[in-house]
């Protein structure tokens, strides 16, 4: 069979609300043309993020009921720990409430003034936590990552020569860790190859530096390695996952992605003294070692989610549904970041709206256009998210369509493709936006806009 179906059937349904074009017009205006300010119940298909928005399985819900809510030593913690140990081989495993909590603990311990942290592509919370510690965050993607249509199979790879140069320039003592984000969310959800991870590891070894993974989407990365990397096609995905973690000295994980849960995070460490420091900080701000800011039921859901995510049927369906949307758009001539990544399809807003300059936010114009046309919500990743006073403009103007896990069916995805193709056909009607109100930091969440009048 060539159709890859959703490997689940539906036991509980959640209605989604159709709106009229007139309703959407006034909702959009009331929200100041910022979809973050739209109430979720006014959204038909929500592609704002794949984080915490997945559907849990019946096994996970059964675990929620069975969970042990003891303060210390809960059996749910040990089940979570067992799953993570089996999957990653790590001995030191701390639960946290989400990815950025793991990042905050880690960088409080190893960040600081004059330190430099390289990454293939920092996610914004990772960068913010590094900068909060007064260290500097540097992105070192391969050059191909900056070219939207380049079909390189591993556009998430790190530029290892640039890493080598950076370490030589700054001196290894200023580099507390080298981070690799799998998959690279900021660069289109693109995977990192095993070959590249090994090359980064070798570079770290030459300079005596630890290598960490930002492993939020480790399973999607492993599946793409299996599909795309020579010599990996016949290997069990769990073995590839293990190879990835075996190369690392530690990892920060948001379980809201490949943990298949609505809340949760993990910090993995090998170094004994770092583990002691992290344990102390965990108790200080998150919670005791065996719950880390979560309820027992969250740990139970993670214990099961991290197993389900490495099942072949799930990953085949997951990656296929993203690729399916990517292919439908590509076939219709809609410009997207090629090849489609693990968790999202990214539209190229510059090609979509050549008539809208970067300072009028072409990506946000597409985001608003898609909501207005079809009630679909997505997010700008370009001059709005990364620009602002004193910042250099980002290399790409993108719109991310993040696909929640196990939530939407093929007909939902067909609807999304149809809507985007229709928007593409009427793209000259999209209008630029001006900011009328914005906060000093992370402005994309709450900024308000007015729309420009149509040209001519
Ligand atoms: N690292 C990466 C690569 C991420 O994509 C995220 C979250 C985090 C760290 C932080 O994890 O949200 O659990 O604190 N990304 C979400 C997104 C928010 O929409 O891409 P968190």
What does this structure look like?
With 456 residues, this protein is of the alpha/beta class. It has 2 domains: 21-50 and 311-451, Aspartate Aminotransferase, domain 1 (Alpha-Beta Complex); 58-308, Type I PLP-dependent aspartate aminotransferase-like (Major domain) (Aspartate Aminotransferase, domain 2). The chain has 16 helices and 14 strands. A 5-stranded mixed beta sheet has the order 2-8-7-6-5, sandwiched between helices. The longest helix is centred in the C-terminal third of the chain and has 20 residues, at 312-331. The chain is globular, with a radius of gyration of 22 Å. The mean pLDDT is 96. The structure holds ligand F0G.
Short description:
The protein is of the alpha/beta class and 456 residues long. 40% of the residues lie in helices and 12% in strands.
Query: Can you say what the CATH homologous superfamily of the largest domain is?
Result: Type I PLP-dependent aspartate aminotransferase-like (Major domain)
Weakly predicted, low-confidence segments: none
| Largest beta sheet: strand ordering | 2-8-7-6-5
**Mean of all residue-level pLDDT scores:** 96
SSE class:
alpha/beta
CATH architecture descriptor text of the largest domain: 3-Layer(aba) Sandwich
Number of domains: 2
Q: And the CATH topology of the largest domain?
A: Aspartate Aminotransferase, domain 2
For the record, what CATH class of the largest domain applies?
A: Alpha Beta
Distinct small molecules bound, one entry per kind: ligand F0G
Could you give the order of the helices and strands? HEHHEHEHEHEHEHHEEHHHEHHEEHEHEE
The counted number of beta strands is 14
**Helix content range of the residues, please?**
40-55%
């Amino acid at each position: 069979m060539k159709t890859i179906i959703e490997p689940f059937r539906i036991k509980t349904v959640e209605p989604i609300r159709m709106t009229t074009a007139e309703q959407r017009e006034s909702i959009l205006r009331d929200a100041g043309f910022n979809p973050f300010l739209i109430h979720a119940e006014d959204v038909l298909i929500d592609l704002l993020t794949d984080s915490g928005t997945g559907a849990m399985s019946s096994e996970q819900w059964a675990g929620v009921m069975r969970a042990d809510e003891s303060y210390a030593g809960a059996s749910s913690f040990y089940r979570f720990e067992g799953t993570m140990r089996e999957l990653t081989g790590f001995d030191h495993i701390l639960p946290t409430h989400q990815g950025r909590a793991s990042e905050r603990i880690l960088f409080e311990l190893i960040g600081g003034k004059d330190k430099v942290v390289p990454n293939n592509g920092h996610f914004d919370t990772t960068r913010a936590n590094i900068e909060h510690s007064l260290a500097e965050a540097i992105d070192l993607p391969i050059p191909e990552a900056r070219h939207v249509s380049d079909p390189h199979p591993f556009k998430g790879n790190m530029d290892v020569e640039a890493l080598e140069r950076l370490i030589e320039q700054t001196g290894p003592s200023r580099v507390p860790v080298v981070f690799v984000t799998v998959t690279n969310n900021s660069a289109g959800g693109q995977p990192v190859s095993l070959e590249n991870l090994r090359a980064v590891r070798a570079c770290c070894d030459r300079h005596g530096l630890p290598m960490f993974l930002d492993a939020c989407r480790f399973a999607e990365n492993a599946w793409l390695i299996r599909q795309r990397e020579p010599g990996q096609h016949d290997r069990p995905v769990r073995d590839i996952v293990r190879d990835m973690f075996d190369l690392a000295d530690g990892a920060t994980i948001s379980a809201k992605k490949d943990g298949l849960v609505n809340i949760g995070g993990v910090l993995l460490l090998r170094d004994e003294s770092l583990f002691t420091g992290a344990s102390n900080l965990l108790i200080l701000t998150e919670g005791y070692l065996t719950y880390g800011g979560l309820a027992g039921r969250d740990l139970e859901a993670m214990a099961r989610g991290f197993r389900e995510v490495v099942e072949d049927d799930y990953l085949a369906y997951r990656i296929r549904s993203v690729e399916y949307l990517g292919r439908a758009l590509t076939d219709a001539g809609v410009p997207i970041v090629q090849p489609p990544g693990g968790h999202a399809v990214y539209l190229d807003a510059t090609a979509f709206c050549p008539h809208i300059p970067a300072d009028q936010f072409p990506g946000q114009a597409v985001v608003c256009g898609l909501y207005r046309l079809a009630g679909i919500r997505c997010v700008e990743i370009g001059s709005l998210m990364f620009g602002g006073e004193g910042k250099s403009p980002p290399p790409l103007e993108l719109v991310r369509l993040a696909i929640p896990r196990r939530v939407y069916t093929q007909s939902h995805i067909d609807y999304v493709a149809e809507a985007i193709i229709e928007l593409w056909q009427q793209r000259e009607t999209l209008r630029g936006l001006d900011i009328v109100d914005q906060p000093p930091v992370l402005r994309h969440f709450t900024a308000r806009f007015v729309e420009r009048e149509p040209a001519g």
